Amino acid sequence: xxxxxxxxxxxxxxxxxxxxxxxxxxxxxxxxxxxxxxxxxxxxxxxxxxxxxxxxxxxxxxxxxxxxxxxxxxxxxxxxxxxxxxxxxxxxxxxxxxxxxxxxxxxxxxxxxxxxxxxxxxxxxxxxxxxxxxxxxxxxxxxxxxxxxxxxxxxxx
Length: 157
What we know:
Elements: H1 3-30, H2 33-37, E1 40-47, E2 53-55, H3 57-68, E3 76-86, E4 91-101, E5 111-119, E6 125-134, H4 137-146
């Protein structure tokens, strides 16, 4: 395959992965657990912000529907990819900043999520794993000050 074709394939894959994340956000924003779960592989792992571990797209969708009907009713999800790396033809890692909110979109997206996405046999990209955590800028800054060697070379603040 020529370098141009490789580049074109990578651009297509990157666009498809971004579209996958957009579909998951749209499903969340509609409060549609079924559609949200459909963005995950059948054996996916979802480690939530509170530490709950869900397995499989069906369970992830079912549990999120219960959340959308209660604690997360009327919420929206905002995410911005900050790193997307293709690890081969069928796997990628995406790191995002994000936030769950009601009303006006927050200026600061204080949660981070790491996604592993995989191209399945049907050719579609789906989320195989996601783990979410809160960004703690004050603790991070203290760590960097106390031990400068802990600062990542490509620190994204």
